[in-house]
Input
Amino acid sequence: MEQQEIIDRINNFMVEDFEVDASAIKPDADLKETLDLDSLDYIDLVVVIEQNFGFKVKPEDFQQMVTIQDFYNYVSNRLQIKNA
Output
């Protein structure tokens, strides 16, 4: 999967499932502030990632993600590992 397709999928479910304003989704935006996630939202996000990309996510992985770009990179790296 190409990087742009990953970004497009993530941006789409952020807008559709988490009601994030599309204009707020920028690579350097703070992930937690942009998504305004509570603990239940994190569970929903894990489920959405697993459904869209087909790999398991550990909740502690989110501790390493600060920006939306970190989130894109995480998904991209996990897909590379999965497909290797």
In short: The two ends are 12 Å apart (CA to CA).
